[in-house]
Design goal:
two-stranded antiparallel ribbon; alpha+beta; 7 strands
Length: 248
């Protein structure tokens, strides 16, 4: 009776979701659980992790399983968990050198890049506001810390249930982000800071400490897992396994 084909259990929310349940109009944010709307109870990163662990606890540990765990964090506006609101209070974000509004900085860049400084994607009027880019990036880091906690909780569950050595874990971002690089913010340009995303992989089939410099895309993930599992890649898959790329 699950209305989401392909998944035994699924949890989602409208748009990018909300960090905290209480909305500006006094209402409570909703989560969609297997087609039923329920109130969000707490900080979204922690709550989604609770749901993930609860589902893992229902599994038959002798059978393969797949968990696709996509966090709301770190979508703007960044809101850290209360326990991390003052994290890094004694630190200061170093803004990138190529944020400078100088002739040298823009010498080899197209005019539109400089013109965007004063757009809502630029550092002079970010999002049409007086936002401080350094403070903004600090909130980004604080918000990510709860995601670190979440990953740790899932890994701890795997260890406690004897599955850590036989489970593939991949951590991947959905886009890069600029915090002043080239005088820009956000993610909408073909600079490395915007295009590159983190991808970490661990488990059987992956060599510890290996770094892959070649281009890898999200469509390579499924062929990689299938190869490790000894399953032939379907013809329609355009990706390739990346287990043999890189060097230790």
């Amino acid at each position: 009776d699950n209305p989401q084909p392909g998944f035994d259990k699924w949890i989602s929310f409208e748009g990018q979701g909300n960090y905290y349940p209480e909305l500006s109009d006094g209402s409570i944010a909703q989560l969609n659980i297997d087609g039923t709307h329920v109130d969000q109870k707490g900080y979204i990163t922690d709550e989604l992790t609770d749901y993930a662990i609860d589902w893992l606890d229902t599994l038959d540990k002798e059978k393969p399983f797949f968990l696709y765990f996509s966090h709301k964090a770190v979508h703007a506006d960044f809101e850290p968990a209360e326990r991390y609101e003052n994290q890094y209070a004694d630190k200061q974000v170093k803004l990138p050198d190529n944020m400078a509004d100088t002739a040298e900085n823009y010498r080899d860049k197209p005019l539109w890049v400089k013109d965007q400084r004063s757009s809502w994607h630029g550092v002079d009027f970010p999002y049409h506001s007086t936002l401080d880019v350094g403070a903004y990036k600090m909130q980004y880091h604080r918000t990510l810390t709860a995601v670190d906690d979440s990953i740790g909780r899932v890994q701890e569950w795997l260890k406690e249930n004897g599955l850590a050595e036989n489970t593939i874990v991949m951590l991947m971002g959905d886009n890069g982000f600029m915090f002043g690089e080239h005088g820009l913010i956000d993610k909408r340009n073909a600079y490395e800071e915007s295009m590159r995303v983190p991808l970490l992989a661990m488990g059987p089939g992956f060599e510890r400490g290996k770094v892959v410099e070649e281009v890898v895309a999200n469509l390579d993930i499924a062929p990689t897992i299938l190869e490790i599992a000894g399953i032939e890649r379907p013809e329609q898959f355009q990706g390739r396994s990346f287990t043999k790329l890189g060097s230790g």
